[in-house]
Amino acid sequence: MGRRRTAVLISGRGSNLQALLDATRAPDHPAEIVRVISNRAGAFGLERAAQAGVATSVVAHRDYPDRPSFERALQERLLADGVELVCLAGFMRVLTPYFVDAWRDRLINIHPSLLPAFPGLDTHARALAAGVRFTGCTVHFVRTEVDLGPIIVQAAVPVLEGDDPERLAARVLEAEHRCYPIGLRLVAGGQARIEGERVVIAGGAHPPGITIHPDL
Ligand code: GRF
Question: Domain spanning 110-216 has what CATH number?
């Protein structure tokens, strides 16, 4: 099987995109990133993609009258590139059922919490307010409900004394950079199978969970 043609959708900084670009440079990685699309022209992630020699496009939501026409433009770009898998990496637009269903089981996202806890925005502030001892990140298949869908990989990250949302976000982000390439590898390699809205990893292994220790 050839490498799966993969697109990454971003809106900003693109540090998770960078982790995916770095990981997929390995010739044995089952995914190849063929296109990076941003809905914002100034997104730094576009520079990261260009540095890596990956084609980029800006599909600016503001150029379209409504979500369906914006998503049709995304879809045309993806189909023209023969894309097989789509990764959302800090993509800040909610996608409608039109797009999500077109990419069902081929569309993955990373979220900076241990889902189903703390979906949506301001996850780190909410985790701190709740007093949880661990938070983390989740790579999951996308469904129409925001930040829900079959879980592929999670990492647990401790909340430490004196954390504020920024400090906690930085610790979780390191975990994200480790998890997303693993999640993409499992999906592109065909090892992550969905059974009854739970992900089963081929070979009977448990889905990967990673714990990031405070001293790492
Ligand atoms: C990450 O924390 C990701 O989990 C969330 O948005 C952030 C994007 O950061 N969905 P980056 O653009 O990948 O640096």
Answer: 3.40.50.170
How far does Cα 55 stand from its chain's mean position? 19
Q: What is the pLDDT of residues 101-119, one digit of tens each?
A: 999 999 999 999 999 999 9
What are the sequence ranges of the domains in the chain? 1-103, 110-216
- Closest-CA residue to 170 (of 119, 205, 135): 135
CB atoms within 10 A of CB 15: 18
Tokens, residue 32 = 């190849």
Protein residue whose Cα sits closest to atom 10 of ligand 1: 90
pTM: 0.95
In angstroms, the CA 209 to CA 189 distance is: 18
CB 136 within 8 A of CB 172: yes
Q: Which fold has domain 1-103?
A: Rossmann fold (3.40.50)
Residues contacting ligand 1 via CB (< 6 Å): 12-17, 89-90, 110-112, 173, 176
pLDDT tens digits along 135-173 = 999 999 999 998 889 999 999 999 999 999 999 999 999
